[in-house]
Amino acid sequence: MSPNADSPEQEPKPLSVFAILAYSIANLGYGMFFALNNAILPLFLQRYTQDARILGLMGSTHSFEGAIIQPIVGSASDRLRTRYGRRRPFMLVAVPISALFLLLTPAASHLPGAVRLVVIIACIFLFTVSFNIAADPYQALMPDITPTQQRGRVSGIAMFVLVLGQATLVQLSIPLAAKFFLTAVVMCITTAITCLVVREKQLPPEDNLNTGALRVPRTGLANHFAELGIALSSLKTLHQAGLALAGLFFAGVGIGAIFPFLTVFVKTITKCTDQQAQTMFLYLMLGTALGVLPFGWLADRIGAKRVLMIGLGMLAIAAFFGLRVNTLSQITILMWLAGFGNAAQSAASYPLLTQLVPSREVGFFTGLQSTALSIATPLTGLITGELVNKGGYRSIFAVCAVSLIVALIVLSRIDLSIAKAEIRTRDREQGRGGSVEESGSSSRENIFGKPI
Fold it and tell me: Residue 147: CB partners within 8 Å, gap ≥ 6?
């Protein structure tokens, strides 16, 4: 993929199929990471603790410290200028660190009982933090290299590859400890492929940060926090983006109530084996895999907001059904329904967010999205874990249903026409004359780069 020679204020050219696959291949390893956290890690931890609060906290892909770290990482990736680009350096450094602690986690299970659980939790914390430092810049790379009208389809393909990684890891009949090793290796290989093949758009070096009347020199740690403060000031203008972040926060609460406990719920309710419980998670992933490409295409046709609302609505219905299921066959139907809902929200949520913010600040808002999840996921893990300890695993579906309904109410208030006006206002605040969404080509093209 050749560097895009367009100016930073212009839309990138539509990606070819090869370019989309080159970007998406990293998601094969990241999908394995998500499956490891959500489906395998709770079963692994059950050998050392029965406390549902610990299972909920450790079985999520976000933790509290991300609320502070991720906006800083996102803002830094927006401003970074290196010969390797602004997003890829984070991936190249953080993924091997995450892989290292993935390998150390099962090794820690051989320590004496007094320190074993503490070291395992420390390793989980460290591989989660380092993974998210890489994941947000990777996600922000997509709108950097993809035009607005193609993002739903590119997100759909990337999510399909991610789900393929999830399904592969869950389906493999190998010891749980071996899945940690496999995830670490595949993450490193697929990240390296994406970073080698994908070429980021070449941005001009900036000696000063344009903030309208104020120009801040690009030197020193103090300046970095000044840049972060400037990015935070965008929240005063971009109210529609704020609504999206709030809606995604409540959606994160709902989904986060389910995933860390899903395989344990199945095993507890049906008395099945570990592998059967992982198979139920596999059905969820298969539903997501089958739905994510059509929903990604649909997001480009009818709008990401509508598709996101459809997906969260399906997940809310599935959550209500979860209050009644008792057998593996009933849970199978539930997993397929939830899978299609998860496909719709996965394909549409990030493309919607990118439509509500200026392209030059997309990394920062990607970090804020992770901030919302970094607060929502551990918080709901603690709350739901306490409810599980007292009332059983069905409480996870009640928390999920209520949270998703709130998310739907908040997201329904987003108005894209107001968002465009807010982006123009933000441009004027920073002394700029236009945005990606306003200055890009008006022609629509498909993933093969041909007009439609």
Answer: 11, 12, 13, 14, 440, 441, 445
Select from 377, 354, 314, 347 the least CA-distant residue to 59.
377
User: Which amino acid is it at 50?
Assistant: Q
Q: Answer yes or no: is pLDDT of 247 > 90.
A: yes
Quick one: angle between helices 362-391 and 395-411, nearest 10?
A: 150
User: What pairs with residue 220 in β-bridges?
Assistant: none
Q: Which two tokens stand for residue 58?
A: 């450790």
SS3 category, 394:
coil
For residue 153, report the phi and psi dihedrals to the nearest 5 degrees.
Answer: -70, -40
**How far, in Å, CA of 213 to CA of 225, rounded?**
18
For 406, the token pair is 């709130």
**The dihedral of CA 15, 32, 357, 144: what is its sign?**
negative
**Residue of 8, 414, 404 lying closest to 239 (CA atoms):** 414
DSSP assignment string, 140-169: HHHHHHS-GGGHHHHHHHHHHHHHHHHHHH
Residue given tokens 């104020």 in the structure block:
214
CB atoms within 10 A of CB 301: 11
pTM (two decimals): 0.66
C-alpha 329: how far from chain center = 30
Q: What is the CA radius of gyration of the chain?
A: 21
Bridge-partner residues for 419, per DSSP? none
pLDDT at 11: 74
Contact 430, 210 (CB under 8 A): yes
- Among the residue ranges 54-68, 199-213, 331-345, the one predicted with the least confidence is 199-213
CB crowding 15-48: b at 16 or more within 10 Å, else e = beeebbbbbbbbbbbbbbbbbbbbbbbbbbbbee
In angstroms, the CA 179 to CA 25 distance is: 19
Distance in Å from the first CA to the final CA of the chain: 22
How far is the C-alpha of 305 from the C-alpha of 254, rounded, in Å? Answer: 18
Give the count of beta carbons closer than 10 Å to the beta carbon of residue 201. Answer: 18
Which pLDDT tens digit goes with each residue over 73-102? 777 777 777 778 888 999 999 999 999 999
242 Cβ partners below 8 Å, 6+ apart? 235
Say how far apart CA 316 and CA 323 lie, in whole Å. Answer: 11
Mean pLDDT of 117-142: 89
In angstroms, rounded to a whole number, what is the distance separating the alpha carbons of residues 286 and 280?
10
H helix or E strand, kind and range, residue 276: helix 274-302
- Asked if 360 and 8 count as a contact pair (C-beta separation under 8 A), the reply is yes
Q: What is the pLDDT of residue 67?
A: 54
Beta bridge partners of 214: 211
